[in-house]
Design brief:
The complex is a heterodimer of chains A (108) and B (427). Chain A has 108 residues and is of the alpha+beta class. Chain A has one domain: Beta-grasp domain (Ubiquitin-like (UB roll), Roll), CATH 3.10.20. Chain B has 427 residues and is an alpha/beta fold. Chain B folds into 3 domains: 175 residues, FAD/NAD(P)-binding domain (3-Layer(bba) Sandwich); 127 residues, 3-Layer(bba) Sandwich (FAD/NAD(P)-binding domain), CATH 3.50.50.60; 79 residues, Enolase-like, domain 1, CATH 3.30.390. Helices cover 22% and strands 28% of the residues of chain B. Chain B contains 10 helices and 26 strands. In chain B, the strands form 7 sheets. Chain B has a 5-stranded parallel beta sheet with strand order 3-2-1-7-19, covered by helices on one side. Chain B has a 5-stranded parallel beta sheet with strand order 9-16-10-11-12, covered by helices on one side. In chain B, helix 1 runs parallel beside helix 7. Classes of the chains: A alpha+beta (108), B alpha/beta (427). At the A-B interface, helix 1 and helix 2 of A face strand 22 and helix 8 of B.
Chain lengths: 108, 427
């Protein structure tokens, strides 16, 4: 199992233990984490699963793809040049057994 | 909101992308009355787009992606009923009858009934091994069957048919696609992009037969399909057939209730039907489309969710968005679509029409290009293949009612992204 922590601006934290291969978006939508929408079903066509990855986990992430790069320019919350990612494009597993992210206040 | 006109009881028929978003938006807009959400299928509401894409890949049984978490319905005080089919509407009594014999009263009724797959009527259609793809149950069946078959025939080179064909090829199966028209996805795409996909699928190893419809199916003694016979008499062996020949809007409830229906349930710019207490949205609704300059019906996630947000505001009398069709404030969001076919990612912004001037940007030989469509010198749509930056620039331009010149579109040195982010000139 891998561990994902979603930090909300009100101080609440959702901590999920999920199967390897699960994306942050799927984990959030399946388990009812507020603030992650995933309107396009994980196809990098919307920007409603925007998260800010905490700095200590940035090294473990895959590079930002072309699709993701374009969608990150359209997020409802402001983009952070280093920490902003789409939750549908980050999958936990052997290379990323744990991650903590901050959830923006706005997604649409 | 006006307390005198606030609805007290909203009933939503259909728990797909449109119905779910409507419920969500009603609550976000502050509606505190009752909501009943009816879904025909037994499943918790789920995302359909992945069913013809990621879901079909080889491997362990995929898990559907929920449209909302289960707690959404309790948190938002929604009476969500699964396996519940609405059978009739009594507009005078303002009630909906369900197939379990219950009757629900409504002050506003929303029809988000979606569409149904068009079915073939050719001989042999009833054989086993011939499938459609719309529901989670369909996708589960196909995912299991794909492990056990060798030869697949796809009827119809539309989005679903070609997404399925690419997924089946990725599993190493023999795939033939029959399309009666002379080019794939002809209803949605310009000839340039359509032609590119015809070539690309053949490079992937798909046998694409254009100008060949389905005439009949052959079966064995067990009643299972063995081959598809085309309208030219060719016989294609098949142990699985996927039928993707388009859809028809689910208008039967509306029609039986006397609502105006014409290629969909007819609505105005606020998504209201010919009965002011009944709304329709998503795949089933025929709406005045400012981008087409005509009444259209669109089948897409964007159309479903944007119309739902608009209808929620209209139902609550909260502008903008409550104006009838043609007036300012009517539904006017930009249509956009996507399709993943193997390594090819097709993205469309706007609506093209036959006769539009097309301008190529990028190189189809590198499988990375866009086709810009113009009518009377004004940008109408952009089709992009593996070129998401062009797609997003097109969405920005078209949403803002802006254009560029055909020369700019064709010029590789023209900085499209920067141009698309400029503020529109004020009059």
């Amino acid at each position: 199992m891998a561990k994902i922590s979603f930090h909300h601006s009100d101080g609440n934290v959702d901590v999920l233990d999920v199967d390897p291969g699960t994306s942050l978006m799927r984990a959030a939508v399946t388990n009812g984490v507020d603030g992650i929408v995933g309107e396009c079903g994980g196809q990098a066509m919307c920007a409603t699963c925007h998260v800010y990855v905490r700095p200590e986990y940035l090294d473990g992430l895959p590079e930002i793809g072309e699709d993701e790069e374009e969608m990150l320019e359209c997020t409802a919350g402001p983009r952070d040049e280093t920490r902003s990612r789409l939750g549908c494009q980050i999958t936990v597993g052997a290379d990323l057994e744990q991650i903590e992210v901050d959830v923006p206040d706005d997604q649409i | 909101m006006n307390a005198m006109t606030d609805p007290e009881n909203v009933v939503v028929v259909g728990n797909g992308q449109a119905g779910i978003q409507l419920v969500d938006s009603l609550r976000k807009e502050g509606y505190t009355g009752a909501i009943t959400l009816l879904g025909e299928e037994p499943h918790h509401p789920y995302q359909r787009p992945p069913l013809s894409k990621d879901y079909l890949a080889a491997g362990k049984d995929p898990v559907p992606l929920p449209l909302r978490p289960e707690k959404f319905f309790t948190t938002n005080d929604v009476d969500a009923r699964l396996g519940a089919r609405a059978t009739s509407i009594d507009r005078t009594a303002r009630t909906v009858a369900l197939d379990d014999g219950t009757t629900l009263a409504y002050s506003k009724l929303v029809l988000a009934t979606g569409a149904a797959n068009r079915e073939l009527t050719v001989p042999g259609t009833a054989l086993s091994g011939i499938h459609g793809l719309r529901t989670l149950t369909d996708a589960q069946t196909l995912h299991a069957r794909l492990d056990a078959v060798r030869s697949v025939v796809v009827i119809g080179a539309g989005f679903i048919g070609l997404e399925f064909a690419a997924a089946a090829r990725a599993r190493g199966l023999d795939v033939t696609v029959l399309e009666y028209a002379d080019r794939p996805m002809g209803r949605a795409l310009t000839p340039v992009t359509s032609g590119f996909f015809a070539d690309a699928h053949q490079r992937l190893g798909v046998t694409l037969r254009l100008g060949e419809g389905i005439a009949s199916f052959d079966g064995n003694d067990a009643g299972h399909v063995t081959a598809a016979v085309s309208t030219t008499g060719e016989r294609y062996p098949a142990d699985l057939v996927l039928v993707g020949v388009g859809v028809t809007p689910r208008t039967e409830l509306a029609a039986a209730a006397g609502l105006e229906v014409e290629n969909g349930i007819v609505v105005d710019g606020s998504l209201r039907t010919s009965d002011p207490d009944i709304y329709a949205l998503g795949d089933c609704a025929s709406f005045p489309n400012v981008h087409a300059g005509a009444r259209t019906r669109l089948e897409s996630v964007q159309n479903a969710t944007d119309q739902a947000r608009h209808a929620a505001r209209a139902i609550l009398g909260a502008g903008p968005g409550s104006g009838p069709g043609g007036e300012p404030g009517g539904y006017a969001d930009l249509p956009w679509f996507w399709s993943n076919q193997g390594h090819l990612r097709l993205q469309i912004a706007g609506l093209s029409a036959p006769g539009d001037q097309t301008v190529l940007r990028g190189n189809p030989a590198e499988e990375k290009f866009s086709v810009f469509c113009f009518r009377n010198g004004t940008l109408t749509a952009v089709e992009s293949v593996n070129q998401p930056a062009d797609h997003m620039a097109a969405r920005r331009l078209l949403s803002a009612g802006r254009t560029l010149t055909p020369e700019q579109a064709a010029d590789p040195d023209f900085d499209l992204k920067t141009y698309s982010k400029q503020q529109p000139a004020t009059v």
